[in-house]
Design a protein that fits this description.
By secondary structure, the protein is an alpha+beta fold. The chain has a domain of 253 residues: 3-Layer(aba) Sandwich (Rossmann fold), CATH 3.40.50. It is 22% helix and 33% strand. It has twelve helices and 35 strands. An eight-stranded mixed beta sheet has the order 28-29-31-30-32-33-34-35, with helices on both faces. A four-stranded antiparallel beta sheet has the order 1-2-3-4, with no helix packed on it. The protein has a four-stranded antiparallel beta sheet with strand order 5-6-7-8, with no helix packed on it. The longest helix is centred in the first third of the chain and has 33 residues.
Length: 646
């Protein structure tokens, strides 16, 4: 047997190695124990699919006679339309989509359902009709590369509806009367070139339109369909004068306007005299919108507005009593009336909160009884979800920024990894409620920050216009300042910050990685533009009437060439230091695949790490369930690797 001998020096060296290894092993054990202890207090780790799979049932609507319900439910992993008899409970599937979800539907009378669907995310929506017996659906707009929409369902006309299409010219939409029985299409209005919206009165007559020359917006009106349209008022697009609803006499109108104020308010308007009359409602902090009205009683009943949450102002005692009645059933939830039958007896109510997607209920006003129709996601338990809290902070130039933060349950809200999630648009805003992404990330131990940066809508025209030509600049500073606020509050760990967004939010993610390269640990861009020049060149043809507005809001490729070069991440990819995940739909008509191709190529050329996911059957966002799963599975691994999420 060979003997082994150890000199003192060798023994000391080996002891040192042992001590070093023992130190790191003990440290690792302590870290694991510490993390395990922290995670032990959190809700259980839920499957990613639970947050992003299709709802069990959704989008309930009641037939005009109040005897049947239509709703959407998964079939073959796609959302399809079902019809249920209220008296018997008998159900029948009436659509058979297998390639793509039904995008939306409505009742046409008591025996037919109209629905819309595109192909592979191209947004060229076709209009289909089927009966409640489940007969094969008919395509009422069977034209290639044509987008169709509903102008008026003509609920009092059982045989027709009004639709618009860009069949004659891809850039503009003409109006057609569609015979739902034969499919015959009769054009009743030709778009002269600048009309971007049509409006009917309560008799289904085409009486108003919105026209634009690219910068100025005109309100067109006619007393009868036999007359030509005449221009009543022209405003710069930076101001609002939008017809919202005809009064039930079909003479007066309700408009949303901010011509005489910063916030959009609701007024009555006399189109024959071309005169704004009475103020109906205004709010001193946010824009007003969402007019409620009763067809049965032929009156407006209230308005909605959103501060931190949705609120109502009622003008009608009956509608106010209805809201109070449903609120009594759900004191701890938001309860929204989403549909009624023609008699306004049977009412569909949708509930939700920040911790639950909620459920649909059928409320009978006569009996004051309520019954649950379906929960959207019963597999997600409310007590395992995280609360969403409204916040405000000051930007570096003193502007008040509103937003929301979602913090993981069961751990101290201190030094957390954080993901900031700028919204898309950017002319949009985040609102309080259940957010699948925020809940998914919170379940993984991440804080989620959502900010309504300048340029967001809902806070008045000054706040919106403050975002003009500020992509990558002050709009991005607002996002950055929100992240730094979370760090200063002790909520976020300065070394574990990420940015993720879709559409404009995807641009913001790329801008964050490019223009603040030392702030984030990683970034995720989802259908986000990277080159503003090519973004503006490849907008859908029917957006071309709005091109000049885009130039005003973002920048003119000729006049503002230096600006657009400065704010386009693709030209500054060498600044990027952090790993990126980029996801894109191949058929995206808004943000073409080339936008993601360019940034991925530039980042890889610079020798940086980027994961690129492309889905060939998707457009502006992933709508098919299996594609969502692939994306969020990849995101989960990405954040686990770079942020240390559980």
């Amino acid at each position: 047997m060979k003997k082994f001998s150890l000199t003192r020096r060798k023994l000391k060296y080996l002891k040192g190695v042992f001590y070093v290894k023992t130190f790191w092993i003990l440290s690792l054990v302590l870290l694991v124990c510490s993390c395990s202890s922290a995670f032990a207090a959190m809700p259980p780790l839920l499957p990613m699919e639970d947050f992003f799979k299709n709802p069990e049932s959704a989008s309930f609507a009641i037939s005009p006679d109040g005897t049947k319900l239509a709703f959407m439910r998964p079939w073959e992993h796609r959302m399809n339309v079902y019809v249920r008899d209220i008296a018997t409970g008998e159900e029948k599937r009436v659509t058979s989509a297998t390639e793509r979800d039904i995008a939306g539907f409505f009742w046409k009378g008591n025996g037919k359902v109209v629905f819309v669907q595109d192909s592979g995310g191209d947004e060229n929506f076709h209009i289909y009709i089927t009966d409640i017996k489940g007969s094969e659906a008919r395509d009422l707009t069977p034209f290639e590369k044509v987008r169709a929409g509903i102008v008026d369902d003509l609920e009092d006309d059982p045989n027709h509806m009004l639709i618009d299409m860009n069949k004659r010219d891809p850039e503009v939409f003409d109006v057609f009367r569609c015979d739902i029985n034969t499919g015959e299409l009769v054009q009743i209005a030709e778009n002269p070139g600048g009309i971007i919206g049509w409006m009917t009165d309560h008799d289904g007559k085409l009486r108003a339109a919105i026209d634009t020359d690219g910068v100025n917006t005109s309100f067109l009106y006619r007393t009868t369909e036999d007359e030509p349209f005449r221009t009543l008022i022209t405003t710069n697009f930076k101001e609002t004068f939008d017809p919202a609803l005809f009064a039930y006499d079909n003479k007066m109108m309700y408009i949303e306007s901010n011509l005489s104020s910063d916030k959009t308010a609701i007024y009555t308007f006399d189109p024959e005299a071309n005169k704004v009359l009475d103020l109906v409602f205004e709010h001193d902090e946010v824009d007003a919108g969402g007019i409620l009205h009763s067809k049965k009683r032929k009156k407006i009943t209230g308005v909605t507005f959103t501060t931190d949450k949705r609120h109502y102002k009622f003008f009608d005692e009956d509608r106010e009593e209805l809201q109070k009645a449903v609120d009594k059933f759900f004191p701890n939830y938001e309860a929204v009336v989403v549909d009624m039958d023609d008699d306004e007896r049977r009412v569909i109510v949708r509930t939700y909160s920040d911790r639950t997607r909620g459920a649909y209920y059928l409320y009978d006003r006569k009996d004051n009884s309520i019954s649950k129709l379906a929960e959207l996601s019963p597999w997600l338990k409310e007590e395992q979800m995280a609360p969403m809290k409204a916040i405000t902070y000051k930007s570096r130039d003193g502007l008040t920024i509103h937003g929301y933060i979602t913090l993981p349950e069961g751990v101290e809200s201190k030094d957390l990894p954080l993901v900031v999630n700028p919204h898309g648009g950017p002319s949009a805003r985040d609102v309080w409620g259940f957010d699948s992404l925020a809940q998914f990330l919170a379940n993984r131990g991440l804080a989620v920050l959502q900010v309504n940066f300048r340029g967001s809508t809902g806070y008045g025209k000054s706040f919106w216009q403050a975002g003009f030509k500020q992509w990558g600049r002050k709009m991005q500073d607002d996002v950055t300042d929100g992240v730094l606020w979370a760090v200063d509050q002790g909520i976020a760990d300065r070394n574990r910050l990420a940015i993720f967004g879709g559409s404009y939010g995807g641009y913001s993610a790329l801008a964050g990685a490019t223009f603040t390269p030392d702030l984030y640990a990683c970034a995720v861009s989802y259908v986000g533009p990277s080159n503003i020049f090519t973004l503006l060149e490849t907008i859908p043809p029917y957006w071309k009437p709005l091109r000049e507005m885009e130039y005003e809001e973002i920048g003119d490729p000729v006049k503002d060439k230096e600006l657009l070069e400065a704010i386009s991440p693709v030209f500054h990819a060498e600044n990027i230091k952090i790993p990126q995940l980029v996801a894109q739909g191949a058929n995206d008509p808004r943000v073409n695949k080339a936008e993601s191709d360019q940034i991925v190529e530039a980042v890889r050329k610079a020798g940086k790490d980027v994961v690129y996911m492309v889905k060939d059957n998707e457009g502006h966002g992933f709508h098919n369930e299996e594609n969502r799963f692939d994306f969020y599975r990849q995101m989960e691994e990405f954040f686990r690797k770079h942020l240390g999420s559980r």
